[in-house]
């Protein structure tokens, strides 16, 4: 069997959590491949809303295995809090969840370093979630990271303190002094908690599962435009959010990947700093924020909103090799008299359909306008029930991208999902 990959094509928060939960019945294993507690993946069913940060979005299904892959950075404190707020018996969570020994750990000082670094950037700040993501991946790349497997070393505390001493020197350079005692006590308690869970060589585990004919779904975090290589650098996260990240974040050979499901909102949002060509600072943007409840699932920050950006979407489809598109939050566009799609940019006075090296170089946007629809579509459960205006909009996206839109999501609940 091959592993299917599901990932975001925009700036995150496309609705990955919801769709992974919807697709989980078709799989045996759901495996997160990158990111950390910067992610906030929302799932709604039976009138209850759950937000996951580290735990894969298949966790609410019985008899499914969820894997936290080597590509993640795990904060044990967030992990503990998340498990305790799942509303699932801990014994069951332990049965359903496996953690890669090769995943990296976020230490209390990583969060302090994140805050110190962001503060030092002033106006140029990234708008990080301040969860310690950048510093933890920095330590991984510079070969100074702590991994889950290290928790079982006898000299773990000494190993930990050698890393902390380096961090404290850097923090002093930023003029930071902080009493770590309370943070460390909480962290070490959470580490003991985490050690009760099953830790595995996830690479071998997935290999054996695939050989046994099991179906595996890889779950991405963030989105393609936040990828460390292909996103709007430096306003990005610190991991590879693209399909290739599923290979390095789980130990999957490229030839063993199957479908690539690309998720996008019917419009665009971004939280944090950085270029956003189609951003709207007007009543339409506010209407998207209000109707779409566009406030961050992790930080509660208002999300910036704008029209769909086709050049960016096509770029994301290209770098990921997307085989199927899933359109999310189509219901949020109900009530707009006109719906716009940016189909090319003006750069140096010339029209271009490719993303320029720097998105700040875009001086103009060319839009195509579609007629809106005024009915409520949140109750629709089949393609036939959708208004013609929305079908026209979707067909245009399919024609332009050459990729079929096979799921249309019309509300946050599991059930508000139309499969074509
Ligand atoms: P993720 O990070 O990609 O998992 O997405 P988030 O959970 O951060 O943000 C998506 C938000 O939109 C959540 O509040 C979801 O409950 C909600 N949502 C998902 N799909 C739909 C949809 O089709 N319509 C509406 N109105 N909300 C949706
Ligand atoms: P999910 O998985 C949206 C953004 C932050 C910031 C930048 C860097 O829920 O889609 P970081 O904390 O990674 O150093 O922040 O990336 N960001 C996200 N935006 N959704 C996310 O995750 C995000 N994770 C990080 O706002 O601009
Ligand atoms: Mg999110």
For the termini, the CA-CA separation is 24 Å
Largest beta sheet, briefly? 10 strands, mixed
Mean pLDDT: 97
Helix-and-strand structural type = alpha/beta
Helix content: 25-40%
Overall description:
This protein has 420 residues and is of the alpha/beta class. The chain has helices spanning 16-23, 76-84, 90-96, 108-121, 133-141, 156-173, 181-194, 202-211, 243-250, 283-292, 310-320, 388-401; strands at residues 3-8, 29-32, 41-45, 48-52, 65-68, 73-74, 97-100, 104-105, 198-200, 216-219, 257-265, 268-270, 304-306, 308-309, 324-328, 338-347, 350-352, 362-371, 405-409, 417-419. The strands form five sheets. Strands 9-7-5-2-10-1-11-15-19-20 form a ten-stranded mixed beta sheet, with helices on both faces. The mean pLDDT is 97. Bound molecules: guanosine-5'-diphosphate (GDP), 6-O-phosphoryl inosine monophosphate and magnesium ion. Residues 8, 11-13, 35, 38-41, 126-129, 131, 133-134, 221-223, 226, 237, 271-272, 297 line the site of 6-O-phosphoryl inosine monophosphate (IMO). Magnesium ion (MG) binds next to loops.
């Amino acid at each position: 069997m091959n592993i299917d990959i599901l990932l975001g094509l925009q700036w995150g928060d496309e609705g990955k959590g919801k769709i992974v939960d919807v697709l989980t019945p078709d799989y045996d294993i759901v495996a997160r491949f990158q990111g950390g507690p910067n992610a906030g993946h929302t799932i709604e069913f039976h009138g209850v809303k759950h937000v996951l940060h580290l735990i894969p979005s298949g966790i609410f299904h019985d008899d499914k295995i969820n894997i936290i892959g080597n590509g993640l950075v795990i904060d044990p404190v967030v992990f503990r809090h998340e498990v305790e707020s799942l509303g699932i018996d801990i014994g069951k969570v332990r049965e359903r969840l496996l953690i890669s020994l090769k995943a990296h750990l976020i230490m209390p000082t990583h969060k302090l370093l994140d805050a110190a670094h962001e503060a030092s950037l002033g106006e140029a700040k990234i708008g990080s979630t301040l969860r310690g993501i950048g510093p933890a991946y920095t330590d991984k790349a510079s070969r100074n990271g702590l991994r889950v497997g290290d928790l079982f070393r006898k000299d773990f505390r000494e190993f930990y303190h050698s890393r902390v001493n380096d961090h404290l020197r850097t923090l002093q350079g930023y003029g930071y002094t902080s009493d770590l005692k309370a943070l460390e006590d909480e962290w070490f308690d959470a580490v003991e908690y985490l050690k009760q869970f099953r830790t595995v060589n996830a690479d071998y585990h997935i290999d054996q599962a695939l050989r046994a004919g099991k179906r595996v779904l890889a779950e991405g975090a963030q989105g393609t435009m936040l990828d460390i290589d292909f996103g709007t650098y430096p306003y990005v996260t610190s991991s590879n959010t693209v399909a290739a990240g599923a290979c390095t974040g789980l130990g999957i050979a490229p030839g063993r990947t199957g479908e690539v499901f690309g998720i996008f909102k019917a419009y665009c949002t971004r939280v944090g700093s950085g270029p956003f060509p189609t951003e709207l600072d007007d009543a339409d943007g506010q209407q998207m924020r209000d109707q779409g409840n566009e406030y961050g699932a992790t930080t509660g920050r208002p999300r910036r909103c704008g029209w769909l950006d086709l050049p960016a979407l096509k770029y994301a489809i290209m770098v990921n090799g997307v085989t199927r598109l899933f359109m999310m939050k189509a219901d949020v566009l109900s009530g707009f008299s006109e719906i716009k799609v940016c189909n090319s940019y003006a750069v140096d006075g010339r029209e271009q359909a490719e993303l320029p090296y720097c998105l700040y170089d875009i001086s103009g946007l060319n839009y195509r306008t579609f007629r809106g629809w005024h009915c409520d579509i949140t109750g629709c459960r089949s393609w036939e029930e959708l208004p013609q205006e929305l079908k026209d909009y979707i067909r245009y996206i399919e024609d332009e991208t050459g990729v079929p839109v096979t799921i249309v999501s019309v509300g946050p609940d599991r059930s508000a999902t139309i499969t074509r």
